[in-house]
Specification:
Elements lengths: L2 E4 H10 L4 E3 L7 E13 L2 E10 L4 E6 L2 E16 L2 E6 L5 E7 L3 E6 L5 E10 H7 L3 H10 L5 E4 L4 H11 L8 H18 L10 E2 L6 H17 L4 H8 L3 H12 L3 H20 L3 H7 L5 H12 L3 H9 L7
Antiparallel strand pairs: 1-3, 2-5, 3-4, 4-10, 5-9, 6-7, 6-8, 6-9, 6-10, 8-11, 11-12
Protein name: HTH araC/xylS-type domain-containing protein
InterPro entries: Homeodomain-like_sf (IPR009057), HTH_AraC (IPR018060), HTH_AraC-typ_CS (IPR018062), PchR_regulatory_protein (IPR053142)
Keywords: DNA-binding, Transcription, Transcription regulation
């Protein structure tokens, strides 16, 4: 039985494994795919993504990836994504393929979807911090940084019969046994991880860098998507400009042209909306909401809140706590 997957389902699934994301769909109720999709946290900092879907929308999804290693075996279909200002496309039309996305510092990852595109794949993601915790010595930590995290690249890894069999076992894993199934799934995933990572330690079998493309218009759109996501995470303008590879003045000018408002005003409104949600959903006090919205003085927060929403924070709280119908 197939399942309809909506934009908010994808956001929730990513949030459960600790990834902040933004879906660039017309609404959170946009159907983005149909089929089977799962994100499973195997260990803290190590998670597995399985998909056997048909994409139902021409859209994209962005997430902030921490430094880490992301191993994908594409069993069928095709995928396109952008990371570190480079766009990649992989297809399994001529047979399954495997690739490794090495992220050596936090960056934006954007996955592009295409209506009608089938995708069957598994992706095993392990954060750099997870690797370092597994190392027995400082020397081992330095070695894995040297072998894996020396740069940010996507590699094509040789898909040996063993790796292909491991990937298919993970993709078709039976989750019906509540206790034993997760243990067995983790065993298969770690075995696949070992076989892929070991290739980076052997010069004769070291994976080759994948081909990528730069498309000016798409790159601009990807930067806007990345910018909105970074703004939601309260990064400073300097940090955002550095991550996007532009100057602060260029960042501000492009934003004004695209959204007809200044970055400062946009950030202010987003913080007020975040505070409004915190007051109603999370039960924060007005003082706590003011602090969340980066206001030093509560009075200034209340003034800005009323100017934007037409109601004070206290009036908002009372309005939503009023259990009796208002009189006409």
């Amino acid at each position: 039985m197939t399942t309809c997957i909506y934009a908010d389902d994808l956001s929730y699934a990513l949030q459960k494994i600790g990834l902040e994301s933004r879906q660039h769909s017309p609404s959170q109720q946009t159907r983005v795919a149909q089929g089977h999709l799962s994100f499973i946290e195997l260990q803290k900092g190590c998670y597995l993504h399985r998909a056997n879907i048909v994409e139902n929308s021409n859209t994209s999804s962005s997430a902030i990836l921490p430094a880490g290693c992301h191993i994908t075996v594409l069993l069928a279909g095709a995928v396109s994504f952008r990371v570190a200002q480079k766009r990649y496309h992989f297809s399994a039309d001529k047979g399954p393929v495997a690739f490794v996305n090495i992220v050596n510092k936090q960056d934006i990852f954007t996955r592009f979807m295409q209506d009608g595109q089938p995708v069957e794949k598994i992706t095993l993601s392990c954060e750099r911090s997870w690797f370092l915790q597994k190392m027995a010595s400082e020397q081992a930590c330095q070695q894995i940084d040297k072998q894996l995290f020396h740069s940010q690249n996507v590699y094509i890894t040789p898909l040996t019969p063993l790796l292909l069999q491991q990937a298919k076992t993970i993709a078709n894993h039976d989750d019906s046994t509540p206790f034993l199934a997760p243990l067995l799934l983790e065993q298969h995933a770690l075995a696949l991880l070992y076989n892929v990572i070991s290739q980076f330690y052997h010069p004769d079998s070291k994976p080759n860098q994948a081909h990528y493309s730069h498309a000016p218009v798409q790159a601009s759109e990807a930067k806007l998507s990345a910018l909105l996501l970074l703004l939601e995470q309260d990064f400073t303008l300097t940090d955002i400009a550095d991550q996007l590879g532009v100057s602060i003045s260029t960042l501000q000018r492009n934003f004004k042209r695209s959204f007809n408002t200044t970055l400062k005003q946009y950030v202010k409104i987003k913080r007020l909306e975040k505070a409004r949600k915190a007051l109603l959903i999370e039960g924060l006090t007005i003082g706590e909401a003011a602090y969340l919205a980066k206001y030093t003085h509560v009075g200034n927060f209340i003034t800005a809140f009323k100017k934007h929403f037409g109601i004070t924070p206290m009036q908002l709280i009372k309005l939503h706590r009023n259990t009796t119908p208002e009189q006409a």
